[in-house]
Amino acid sequence: MQDAIEPVGPQWMLKITPGRGTRYQQIVDYIEQAIGEGRLRPGDRVPPQRHLAKALGVDLTTVTRAYAEAKRRNLLDAKGALGTFIAAPRAQLAAVVDMSMNVPPPPGNLDFADLLRRGLSQVLLRSDPHLLMTYQLGGGSAADRAAGAQWLGPMMGAVGTSRLVVCPGAQAALAALILNLTNLGDSIAAESLSYPGLRSAAQQLDRKVMAIQSDDAGMLPDQLDAACAGGVRLIYLNPTMQNPTTRTMPISRREDLARVAAKYNARIVEDDPYWLLSTDAPSPIACVAPELTYYISTLSKTLSPGLRTAYVLLPDRTDHDDGFLAALRSFALMSMPIAVALSTQWILDGSAQQLLDGIRTEAMARREIANRWLSGIGQLPPTGIHVWHALPEHWSPEQLTKAALAEDLRVTPSDAFYNGPTPPNAIRISLGGARERAELSLALRKLAALLERKPTPRQIVV
Fold first, then answer.
1. Taking a C-beta distance cutoff of 8 angstroms, is the pair 205, 224 a contact?
2. What's the whole-model pTM score?
3. Could you tell me the pLDDT band of residue 459, with boundaries at 50, 70 and 90?
């Protein structure tokens, strides 16, 4: 005689919807969302697999696979004969959930450790170990540049490897370009809200950032024209899913700005780390004005910060000299050979595309979590990895940032990005820093509750 199938609780009556992924994956996503929303709590016992299969009208194999994936994500904790329970989230063990650094989220559907092991194994198998541990000059080997050209293919089409330089990260590339293309005291045109690394590099090199007014489409061409008429000869743009605003500049504005640059023979640094994460990005400015534009694409924002590899596509001109490479070597003699070799291996064997696809999927899921908990974030890019959040009037960015840290949350205030005296009342929230979706959901839920409260007297900055 078979045991009776007991009904499962109402909190487990999810609806399996065609077209929203595999059945087992929908069950896993439901568990993760329910944990984040507090409907399932650490220590809650989950239904036996055959009970849940019966309740949902799916086969036992589907539930078995769902529970196995949930265990891999540390959502469930199996305790033998006692049963299976909702696991304590890692967020409870972490000192701070860091939502201040813009990093790609770990892809939930990939075994990253295995990908890393296989990639490094191939690197060691195919490379001379001595070459991986010695000086390597010249901006990348022929194989490294070929990998860079393949990486840039979706946005740039076919590019000559002679125009490519492999760099130890986008920040080093940006600093070297500033050093090579400007003189002491020169100004660099940029949007009033822009990447903090630009301001940092400019200050260290005794240059200035000139804030150019923007609208919803990006930097205003007439304002840039006035700046260039006044002597500015270097323009910094981050046109796709801009950091921090998430705005993508339309092709018409890219063309207008390129015309202004051409009028004054000004150079453009196009910092474009998020193009490959976008679902509908226009062609880069480097395609519109290839003779004027230095194009930077980094793996740190699309694959992993640990790769510390970026590609710079030099302008399509015949008068190249080695000034950029010399500037780069003055403070960053070379890229880390092992990191570059791994980047090259992953790009050429298809692992980089596999990882990128996983990160896109994970970014989309995290965007939905952000939409669930946060108001005031506007229309997010489907696969964006950060959020620009307008604050209610009762919070200032400095107050909110300090109050969030007291709640074990780290976010970035608007003054980190603003080139001017009065930054907007907003913060940037990065979605990739949390290790798992459940951790992110708990963190954003806590942040949303904090935003609804008013600051206490000791949180008010005088």
1. no
2. 0.85
3. low
